[in-house]
Amino acid sequence: MRDGIRFFESGLQLIQGNGDLKTALGELVQLAAQDGNSTSASFYVADWPHRVLRPLITYGLPPEYVVACGDVRIGDQCCGRAVHGRKPWVVSDMLSDPLFASAKSAAEVSPIRAAFSVPVIDEGGQCLGSLASHYSEVHIPTPAEIRGNETWASLIAHAISRYKAAGASEAASAGGNERRNA
What we know:
Radius of gyration: 18 Å
Oligomer: single chain
CATH superfamily: GAF domain
Helix content: 40-55%
């Protein structure tokens, strides 16, 4: 219950144009992990000009795993495939999945063995990145875990959109005041 209250307080702050986006996103990622029956999760943001995903929020992930994964090429690893295909992607065993070969060393140097990712897509259809839940053992997510993370991904996209809209509104207001004062 306490997590739910914290989430709603952060959401209210963002809707009102206040609060720290990264803190709110961190709380959403943590709640996504819990909903996905995991102790770790991540939100990687898309850098479209370079066609990579960069870690913005990691929760409960060993630093050596994050470093070994590095920036993720869109279309590669679990997160990159979810973004490229704009659909959930599962890697049930990172040590044996040939489509995770480019980051197999991340699983070898850490206790992380499985993950699933969903794309984070805003209301305008722009893919902002990926949300993933990570596991310390071989794991195939249930349909409910995937649906839950799709819901959290929508909330993350909405929070980012609201934050951007509040920033644009603030900038327009400031620009209008400067013109009046000139």
